[in-house]
């Protein structure tokens, strides 16, 4: 049982579902005073991140507003199974989203006809693709979303991009010869060999990890060849359900220009922009602004009883 600090009690249980040949670990949040099965929000994080990195803060606020939440870790990450560890496969993560949606719909304690997708950063791009593929979700919320691989790649420092490409090619060679993956850092200082090297990355991304949590700041480097070709914004243009896009004007990881372009091409999309950096909306005033807007959106398009 959880007390959200304002007297609202909610239950959180550890659950799991199968995706591919592995179990995905998840938290299921349920509001204690729901008179009927509530809508359920399926949630997951961004690039190499896990649910322990502040997703509980969002889920607790959604549950206090009357929604159930299913918060999961991708295969190969966090508390989920999958070998090798830290393998970031876009295809597999999208399959994880499909499996999570199917699991949510199988639950008797939620309204299976009202499923919402919520993703942030790289996961913000995933929910666009997953929502379009599913075709029956009630709404999508994409927070500081990755919408354009080319735009994010161009935002990288050229030296870091070259280093990552070299590491990625070495990892592909290791995969072909069945050797252990060659790793690359997720967050690094400017000029380093990492997928994210903007000045606000290390002070913004790594503090999201709780003290003492065994987080690995690295992934199999092969994903460095996939990211530049991945363009979830194309799916955003085609989403038919109500969609909220929360974009940060100071985003150094997922440039806002591409996000605004794709969002403006779909009348089903509501775009909210914040004078914040990519990592600022997980904490403090940025968090309060974005969670308030997201709950208002949900109450408008997927109302609780």
UniProtKB/TrEMBL annotation:
Family in the record: Belongs to the AB hydrolase superfamily.
- Asked if the record carries the keyword ATP-binding, the reply is no
Sorted keywords for this record are:
Hydrolase
GO MF terms listed in the record are:
carboxylic ester hydrolase activity
**Domain Serine aminopeptidase S33, first and last residues per copy:** 39-276
Origin, by domain of life?
Bacteria
Write down what this protein is called. Dienelactone hydrolase
The lineage is: Bacteria, Bacillati, Actinomycetota, Actinomycetes, Mycobacteriales
Asked if Hydrolase is a keyword of the record, the answer is yes
A Pfam family that the UniProt record links to this protein: Hydrolase_4
InterPro entries the UniProt entry points to: AB_hydrolase_fold (IPR029058), FrsA_esterase (IPR050261), Hydrolase_4 (IPR022742)
């Amino acid at each position: 049982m959880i007390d959200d600090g304002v007297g609202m009690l909610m239950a959180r249980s550890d659950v799991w579902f199968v995706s591919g040949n592995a179990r995905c670990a998840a938290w299921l949040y349920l509001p204690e005073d729901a008179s009927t099965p509530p809508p359920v929000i399926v949630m997951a994080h961004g690039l190499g991140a896990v649910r322990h990195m502040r997703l509980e803060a969002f889920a607790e606020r959604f549950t206090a507003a009357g929604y159930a939440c299913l918060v999961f870790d991708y295969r190969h990450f966090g508390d989920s199974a999958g070998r090798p560890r830290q393998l970031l496969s876009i295809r597999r993560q999208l399959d994880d989203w499909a499996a999570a949606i199917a699991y949510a719909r199988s639950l008797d304690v939620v309204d299976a006809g009202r499923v919402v997708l919520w993703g942030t950063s790289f996961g913000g791009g995933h929910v666009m693709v997953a929502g379009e593929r599913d075709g029956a979700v009630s709404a999508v919320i994409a927070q500081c979303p990755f919408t354009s691989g080319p735009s994010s790649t161009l935002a990288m420092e050229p030296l870091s991009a070259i280093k990552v490409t070299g590491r990625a090619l070495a990892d592909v060679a290791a995969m072909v010869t069945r050797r252990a993956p060659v790793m690359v850092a997720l967050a690094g200082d400017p000029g380093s060999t990492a997928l994210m090297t903007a000045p606000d990355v290390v002070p913004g991304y790594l503090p999201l990890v709780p003290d003492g949590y065994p987080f690995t700041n690295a992934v199999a480097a092969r994903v460095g060849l996939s990211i530049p070709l991945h363009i979830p914004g194309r799916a955003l243009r085609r989403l038919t359900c109500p969609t909220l896009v929360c974009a940060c004007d100071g985003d150094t990881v997922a440039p806002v220009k591409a996000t605004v372009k794709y969002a403006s091409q779909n009348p089903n999309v509501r775009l909210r922009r914040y004078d914040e950096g990519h990592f600022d909306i997980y904490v403090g005033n940025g968090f309060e602004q974005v969670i308030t807007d997201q709950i208002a959106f949900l109450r408008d398009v997927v109302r609780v009883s």
